[in-house]
RNA sequence: GGGAGCAUAGCUCAGUUGGUUCAGAGCAUCUGCCUUACAAGCAGAGGGUCACUGGUUCGAAUCCAGUUGUUCCCACCA
């Protein structure tokens, strides 16, 4: 034990041990005869940087993995990154723009070259940041969703589902992101209530020849810039106010285009004016109405959200600029009746935060109904457990109402859709140009390779990440359910636990279950631990714009990774949002300091050849029991994914019981030495505690464990986790009582004004004989005359002790309390006896439970008697 | 609009078939202590009508109904 430093300095410790762990490949896993414990990382965006959400996720993941590793499992945590098509592409576009290069000026190949350069430059950052946090990933297995072989798996999957008839191409109203210039899925649209205006516009009735009459109707809209694309004005057929309109036509303001009045029960009579302008090209519902009434589709907004020539006016203006301008024009033309403030839910792109524009376009879709049905069954049957299980409801709801998945994206960064078009517009879907050519020749033998044109679009990122738990082990399996799978896949799949945020339950978790069912005929993981979302201490989401998102690397720099990990776990009970507070990390630092100092204290002790004192024997015995008790509690917490409870159990064991009581008890008096038996036991305790804490705080525990004795190249991370032995709860309980008694004595001494007469008498018969001397030592008092052995009494300061030990207070004022207690106990007896007279309970419940009930009954009877006799005495 | 969840100390949360681990923990607060590992410490203390109202029960933080507040999910009413 050579540690000299007075304070723990993580910067001297963390990088050193992480490098050593890496060098010795302690994180690496290969299939062997042990039970595997497998986890795949939720792959962070390849160009992302570490934020607090990652810290939380990966800390939890690492705790689970390290715990499993110490439990003797073959732990394998596969790291990697996600290509994140929209996010990455928009970053690359922005970077090129800053350099004066426009994406439009580049060919696909040129752009991809830039994108790959970007990836090579930034792709490793987030993974290196995870190493700072102590993540014990098997870095040799690092994967990227656009690795050539993983991409191949994606293409195979597309071809597989296409040939199965699940993938089809269709024209649909999609959510268009005018900034990202791509369609996004329904799930990637965030609806936010946004203040806007309701424009009440006059549409004049046509005289039948395209001229306005003096009659008009009022149509309300939030999007006046789309009136040029109106195809009709719609009323509810039951709306008597507007029956006179039937069969008439109205003129679109400003452009005076004649459009019909139609009737559809979709229109709500009491919303707005009861008149709805139908704009099939720019609204999902209007599109549906248009289909029913065979209305023309007039598209006046281009991919960038600007008005097109078809709008006739304001051509080239951005839609929001056009809105303002057109409102003014309407007003000048006398068509604007009024505007009212209105809050409406507007869809925003999750990636770019641009307002989503509903837009008609040709996209690829994957049929979801059959896949969703199986995926629902996997969770309903418990094959996949969601933790906490409140998410089962939302999961079920989503699975039962799922719509087909739009899997095409109008981007370049991603796996290109393997559809190859013939010149006549027909297409074939194959996993390579060669196979496509062959297939195309079956349609048209004259086709040459250069005649085929591959689809320009790429696949949704989730269409690759849903294969993640399969493709990180075997890239040939996805798309080929008939293949056997390689040794890795057979050994590691299904993975055990998945730790991720609830925000991607549907994006990712549900879809992985689908892919697992389809290709592996088994779910991809057994447990899904859904963390909360990290918020600041005021409950706001972490965001760049609010500036409330701390940089985890700075925190690690300032406090050390162990402290950051502990702090994160301290404020994270499962399923609840995490209200991050730097004070929690300070608490982590405090705990590091406590461990460090406890170690320093023990390091000062020297042994000499002498007999172990009775007090020390009691202390060692007690802490042995206490340690086992805590380990069994921790195991229970881990089995229920109550990580912060497990942590708190270890925290209190170390701080309160070990440092606060045990060390104080055995600490030799100044200038004295310790007996060898106690010192040996103390060192053993300390080592067990280090191992217990290691999964949570890997660095400081390794540092101290290495210093504790020569380790010969061993690491704490591969030591067996402490095991619970049988322990005596009675001894623990007696000690707890002793703690209270001591507190009482201390309190007595502190409050000097308290006279002995006022103090209550406490009998110590409940204690083993040598416990009395323990009490005296800990209370740091001279025995108050009467203390001399079992059965002796000590003056103590609180009534609480008395009640604990005697069950009674010798005090007339307590009479009514006692009576109330008797009444309560009698009621309790009724309940217990009712339970015990129930055949089903007695024969059905475990014997142990029944026995407990009987004991409760007997105890209650005895207690009632005691209380009654006490009452008589009063 | 539809669905789900939540409401316990100043804050964040435990509380596992209704009772005997029932009112708890950590942090924060207050009061004493520089006691020879740690003042980043130690010893104490205060603090809650378990959201509200009814109901079931011998007994309710716990079960039921309603009310209020709040969060999330789904749908978008232009």
| Percent of residues in beta strands | 15-25%
Taken from the alpha-carbon principal axes, the silhouette is globular
Multimeric state of these chains? single chain
Class from helix and strand fractions: alpha/beta
What's the rounded overall pLDDT mean?
85
Gyration radius (Cα, Å) is 36 Å
Can you tell me the residue ranges where pLDDT is under 50 for at least 5 consecutive residues?
748-769, 780-813
- Overall helicity: 40-55%
Number of strands: 29
List the total number of helices.
28
CA distance, first residue to last residue: 61 Å
The major beta sheet can be summarized as: 7 strands, mixed
Question: How does the SSE layout of this entry go?
Answer:
Layout: H1 14-23, E1 36-40, H2 52-70, E2 74-78, E3 80-81, H3 85-98, H4 108-122, H5 125-133, E4 143-144, H6 148-164, E5 167-177, E6 182-184, E7 189-206, E8 212-221, E9 232-235, E10 249-251, E11 258-263, E12 275-278, H7 284-293, H8 319-333, E13 336-349, E14 357-366, H9 369-380, E15 385-387, H10 391-400, E16 405-406, E17 408-409, E18 419-421, E19 427-429, H11 433-443, E20 453-454, E21 458-459, H12 462-465, H13 468-471, H14 487-492, E22 495-500, H15 505-520, E23 525-530, E24 534-535, H16 552-559, H17 561-570, E25 578-579, H18 582-604, E26 607-608, H19 614-639, H20 643-666, E27 674-675, H21 676-693, H22 698-708, H23 729-750, E28 760-763, H24 771-779, E29 793-796, H25 799-806, H26 815-836, H27 839-844, H28 847-873
Parallel strand pairs: 1-2, 3-4, 9-11, 15-23, 22-23, 24-25, 26-27
Antiparallel strand pairs: 5-6, 5-14, 7-8, 7-10, 7-13, 9-12, 10-11, 14-16, 17-21, 18-19, 18-20, 28-29
The chain binds one RNA strand of 78 nucleotides through strand 8, strand 12, helix 7, strand 13 and helix 10.
């Amino acid at each position: 034990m050579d540690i000299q430093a007075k304070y723990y300095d993580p910067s001297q410790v963390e990088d050193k041990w992480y490098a050593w762990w890496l060098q010795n490949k302690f994180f690496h896993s290969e299939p062997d005869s042990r039970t595997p414990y497998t986890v795949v990382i939720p792959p962070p965006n390849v160009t992302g940087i570490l934020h607090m959400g990652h810290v939380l996720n990966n800390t939890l993941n690492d705790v689970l993995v390290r715990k499993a590793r110490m439990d003797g499992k073959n732990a394998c945590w596969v790291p990697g990154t996600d290509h994140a098509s929209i996010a990455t592409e928009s970053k690359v576009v922005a970077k090129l723009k800053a350099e004066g290069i426009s994406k439009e000026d580049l060919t696909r190949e040129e752009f991809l070259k830039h994108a790959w350069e970007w990836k090579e430059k930034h792709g490793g950052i987030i993974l290196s940041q995870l190493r700072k946090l102590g993540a014990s990933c098997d870095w040799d297995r690092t994967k990227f969703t656009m690795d050539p072989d993983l991409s191949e798996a994606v293409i195979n999957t597309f071809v597989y589902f296409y040939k199965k008839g699940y993938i089809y191409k269709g024209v649909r109203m999609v959510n268009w992101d005018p900034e990202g210039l791509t369609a996004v899925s329904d799930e990637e649209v965030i609806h936010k209530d946004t203040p806007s205006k309701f424009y009440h516009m006059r549409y004049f009735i046509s005289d039948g020849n395209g001229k306005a009459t003096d009659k008009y109707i009022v149509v309300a809209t939030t999007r006046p810039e789309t009136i040029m694309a109106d195809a009709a004005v719609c009323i509810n057929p039951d709306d008597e106010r507007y029956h006179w309109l039937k069969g008439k036509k109205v003129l679109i303001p400003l452009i005076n285009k004649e459009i019909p009045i139609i009737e559809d029960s979709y229109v709500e009579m009491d919303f707005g004016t009861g008149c709805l302008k139908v704009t099939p090209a720019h609204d999902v519902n209007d599109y549906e109405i248009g289909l029913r009434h065979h209305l023309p589709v007039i598209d006046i907004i281009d991919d960038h959200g600007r008005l097109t020539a078809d709008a006739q006016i304001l051509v080239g203006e951005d839609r929001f600029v056009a809105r303002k301008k057109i409102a003014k024009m309407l007003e000048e033309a006398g068509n604007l009746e009024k505007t009212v403030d209105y809050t409406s839910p507007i869809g925003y792109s999750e990636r770019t935060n641009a307002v989503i524009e509903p837009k008609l376009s040709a996209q690829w879709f994957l049929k979801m109904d059959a896949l969703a049905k199986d995926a629902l069954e996997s969770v309903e049957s418990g094959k996949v457990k969601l933790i906490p299980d409140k998410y089962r409801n939302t999961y079920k709801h989503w699975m039962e109402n799922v719509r087909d998945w739009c899997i095409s994206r109008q981007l370049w960064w991603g796996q290109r859709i393997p559809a190859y078009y013939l010149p006549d517009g027909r297409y074939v879907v194959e996993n390579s140009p060669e196979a496509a050519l062959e297939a195309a020749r079956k349609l048209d033998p004259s086709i040459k390779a250069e005649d085929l044109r591959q689809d320009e679009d790429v696949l949704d990122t989730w269409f690759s990440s849903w294969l993640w738990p399969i493709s990180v082990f075997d890239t040939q399996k996805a798309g080929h359910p008939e293949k056997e799978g390689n040794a890795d896949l057979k050994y590691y799949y299904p993975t055990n636990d998945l730790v991720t945020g609830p925000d991607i339950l549907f994006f990712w978790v549900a879809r992985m279950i689908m892919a697992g069912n389809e290709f592996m005929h088994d779910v991809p993981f057994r447990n899904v631990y859904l963390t909360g979302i990290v918020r600041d201490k005021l409950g706001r989401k972490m965001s760049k714009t609010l500036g409330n998102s701390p940089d985890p690397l700075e925190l690690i720099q300032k406090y050390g990774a162990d402290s950051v990990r502990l702090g994160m776990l301290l404020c994270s009970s499962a399923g609840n949002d995490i209200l991050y507070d730097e004070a929690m990390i300070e608490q982590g630092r405090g705990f590091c300091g406590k461990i460090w100092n406890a170690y320093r204290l023990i390091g000062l002790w020297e042994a000499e050849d002498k007999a172990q004192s009775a007090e020390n024997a009691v202390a060692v015995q007690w802490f042995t029991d206490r340690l086992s008790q805590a380990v069994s509690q921790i195991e229970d917490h881990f089995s229920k994914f109550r990580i912060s409870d497990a942590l708190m159990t270890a925290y209190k064991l170390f701080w309160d019981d070990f440092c606060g009581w045990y060390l104080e008890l055995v600490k030799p008096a100044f200038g004295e030495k310790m007996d060898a038996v106690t010192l040996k036991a103390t060192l053993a305790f300390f080592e067990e505690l280090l191992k217990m804490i290691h999964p949570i705080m890997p660095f400081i525990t390794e540092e101290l464990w290495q210093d504790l004795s020569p380790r010969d190249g061993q690491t704490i991370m591969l030591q067996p986790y402490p095991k619970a032995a049988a322990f005596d709860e009675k001894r623990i309980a007696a000690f707890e009582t002793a703690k209270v008694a001591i507190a009482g004595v201390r309190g007595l001494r502190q409050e000097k004004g308290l006279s002995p007469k006022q103090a209550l008498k406490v009998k110590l018969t409940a204690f083993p004989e040598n416990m009395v001397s323990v009490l005296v030592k800990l209370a740091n008092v001279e025995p108050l005359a009467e203390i001399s052995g079992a059965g002796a009494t000590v003056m103590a300061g609180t009534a609480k002790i008395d009640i604990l030990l005697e069950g009674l207070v010798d005090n007339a004022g307590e009479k009514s309390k006692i009576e109330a207690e008797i009444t309560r106990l009698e009621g309790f007896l009724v309940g217990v006896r009712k339970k015990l007279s129930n055949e089903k309970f007695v024969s059905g419940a475990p014997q142990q439970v029944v026995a407990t009930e009987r004991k409760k009954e007997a105890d209650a009877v005895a207690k009632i008697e005691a209380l009654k006799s006490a009452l008589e005495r009063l």
